[in-house]
């Protein structure tokens, strides 16, 4: 028989006597706590009271947050909280004018959008969520910005400091790297197209891919167009003199004059716009196998052919980079001086016989 009763309750109900043993003294108490006339088949009674003293114990009051206080407040406070959490934008944005125009049209009587804290795509419009997504770690961001400002001021005020060459190039010249997904072709076939567009302007490379008989030429053409559009939209490349005036830059090639430079391949190129884009680099990456195909041979033999994949990566730069590289090569050649076949130095290690 199982009994779920505290031991101190049993001892309190049946106290042992001097003449009887503790076991025999507990029998009347055990029989009184069971149901049914037969103690062997009796079911134990749960003697725990229904309401314990600690069930209704009041916990210590904790300080509630400001949002919880506003929710528990009046209806006006709750309404103000919902409006602040469901604003479309947190602060000034690039689409602020469009949002103001939409709000003005809605006031004039145009159909309004359904109110809610989520967009049609399911993104949250709460200010806390937007701030958490755009600026996940504000303290680290502020420390990094402060560090960069201090470094820039120190370098600008120190007469012995000089801006590193890599940082100056990154500040004055633009570039974009675009990588295509893995295509259903091999590296040997795709590398021919990469060599065909390398060093050409974007317009010339598109013409080459348009009239090429290769199957993957159209895929490379699509990747070139995508990289060109991203370079214009994200980096402001290829905008001509208007783009330079808007960004505050000075045209280096000078007042609409056409200059002629020599590339690394030895070809002479005429440049009338330093912001014109060209394919600076193009290389091919090998991807995973996309399948296997049996190749049936003579005498019942079978070979397995692996179907490869490959992707092409393209780096677009402006003609300003090519002009700078040409000027650096010319300056280096001038610093080296004229080439001398036999340098004027003393002859040493002369012997009468051979050294072997």
UniProtKB/TrEMBL annotation:
UniProt feature, compositional bias: Low complexity: 14-23
Give the source's domain of life in one word: Eukaryota
Q: Where is this region: Disordered?
A: 1-23
SUPFAM superfamilies recorded: Ribosomal protein L22
Q: Name one process (GO BP) from the record.
A: translation
Keywords, in A-Z order: Ribonucleoprotein, Ribosomal protein
Which GO terms of the cellular component aspect does the record hold?
large ribosomal subunit
Q: Which GO terms describe its molecular function?
A: structural constituent of ribosome
Q: Which protein family is named in the record? A: Belongs to the universal ribosomal protein uL22 family.
Q: Mind telling me what this protein is named?
A: Ribosomal protein L22/L17
Question: Could you read off the lineage of the organism from its UniProt record?
Answer: Eukaryota, Fungi, Dikarya, Ascomycota, Pezizomycotina
């Amino acid at each position: 028989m199982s009994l779920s009763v505290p031991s101190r309750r049993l001892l309190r109900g049946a106290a042992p006597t001097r003449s009887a043993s503790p076991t025999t003294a507990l029998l009347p108490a055990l029989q009184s706590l069971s149901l049914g006339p037969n103690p062997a088949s009796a079911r134990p009674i749960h003697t725990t009271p229904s309401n314990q003293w600690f069930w209704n114990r009041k916990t210590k009051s904790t300080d509630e947050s400001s949002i919880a206080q506003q929710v528990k407040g009046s209806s006006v406070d709750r309404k103000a909280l919902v409006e602040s959490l469901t604003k479309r934008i947190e602060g000034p944005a690039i689409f602020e004018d469009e949002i103001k125009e939409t709000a003005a049209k809605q006031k004039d009587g145009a159909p309004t959008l359904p109110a809610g804290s989520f967009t049609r795509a399911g993104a949250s419009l709460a200010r806390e969520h937007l701030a958490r997504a755009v600026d996940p770690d504000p303290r680290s961001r502020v420390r990094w910005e402060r560090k960069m400002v201090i470094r820039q001021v120190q370098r600008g005020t120190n007469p012995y400091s000089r801006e590193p060459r890599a940082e100056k190039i990154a500040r004055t010249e633009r570039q974009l790297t675009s990588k295509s997904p893995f295509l259903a072709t091999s590296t040997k076939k795709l590398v021919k197209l990469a060599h065909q567009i390398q060093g050409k302007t974007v317009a010339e490379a598109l013409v080459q891919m348009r009239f090429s008989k290769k199957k993957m030429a159209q895929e490379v053409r699509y990747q070139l167009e995508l990289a060109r559009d991203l370079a214009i939209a994200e980096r402001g490349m290829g905008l001509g003199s208007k783009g330079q005036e808007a960004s505050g830059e000075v045209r280096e090639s000078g007042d609409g004059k056409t200059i002629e430079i020599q590339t690394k391949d030895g070809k002479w190129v005429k440049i009338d716009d330093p912001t014109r884009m060209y394919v600076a680099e193009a290389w091919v990456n090998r991807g995973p196998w996309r399948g296997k195909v049996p190749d049936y041979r003579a005498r019942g033999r079978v070979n397995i052919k692996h179907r490869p994949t490959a992707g092409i990566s393209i780096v677009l730069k402006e003609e300003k980079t090519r002009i700078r590289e040409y000027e650096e090569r010319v300056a280096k050649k001038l610093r080296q001086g004229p080439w001398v076949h036999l340098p004027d130095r003393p002859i040493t290690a002369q012997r009468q016989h051979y050294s072997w």
